[in-house]
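Hi P.,

Sorry for the delay on this. The queue was packed all week, but I finally got your sequence through. Input first:
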Amino acid sequence: MSATAAAAGAALQHRYLSSIFTELCAIESPSLSEGACGERVRRELEALGLDVHEDAAGEAIGADCGNMLARIECAPAGAAPEAERRSVLLCAHLDTVPLQAPVEPVLEDGFFENANEGILGADNKAAVAAMLAAVATIVSEGRPHAGIELVLTPMEEVGLRGAKGFDTSRLVAGHGYCYDHAAPIGHIVVAAPTQKSMRLVFLGRPAHSGIAPEDGRSAVQAAARAIADMRLGRVDSETTANVGLIEGGVAGNIIPPECRVSAEARSLDAEKARSLAQEMLDAAVHAANMYECELESRIVSEYEGYRFTRTHPAVRLAAGALERAGYEPTYIQSGGGADANVFNLAGVPCVNLCNGMAAIHTPDEHISVADLDGMTRVTLELVAGACN
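Then the structure:
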């Protein structure tokens, strides 16, 4: 390809990328309501000649969209079966956290942001857009590849529920990538935590706080003692814990008969996560007994952690793609989960790559045009590298 043709192709790709990104961001898709965004992505993929298969996971988890799978068979046709096993999985999620304001993407000084005081939705539509732009380039230019599978999931932001409902036996790809970590391009997430969530309900006895407080059993007091006894925040270099929600009480003059607490423990060491969750539960049991309250508890395993070596084939492929795209690979550990956790647990090695989005989940969320273009180049290099 001549330099002139390459420049023209890059300019076309850039225009397409900016257009599809802003269009996707403007489609509101908080968890449970990803359908409109999913349909827009479906139309885009079908316009490229791809078949899009939507599973029934949405119905099972209460979303209005299931997991969407589009496959581009190995090219050139007739490649050896081992080439097909080098097929690359690209995964992104369609949902966002709840909206604080309508999304009106604007470009300011090279960065996309929301003109209103709310999230932009770069998490994770920047990944969707970069993957679509790369696929469009591969298809339109007839670039060789070992096969591509694109999986788009709902309800990632509320427990990776879409990915958990996806049947990974449908995949051919031997490894995959998601772009779902807010850090500069070049950062490769080689370890992510196990997370345990817990719901604690303290049940006491109501009484008038001024006339007969001794007849009451304060569920709030029991919960407060439990929380005070918990190790929260940064527990060690691998482990964190948090109490994020406390609800309870009836009125200021009534001993509160119920208090509900939502908490979590997570660690890069799975055993530490389990042990800390049990420790937090033990604190709740002790406090409930101390204040003569009952306790209802539930611990849920949100996702299991994973850890890659730098020499793992999927990590080496990512590092090579980043270098060819002009980025220096940096290896990091994350304190957050992503769909990659689910695929790794299912036996499909999946690496989370950082894509430059910043201040996610806040009204200051933004991403640069350069980073959108950069992750599209990285995607093209991932696919090209898998052929070798």
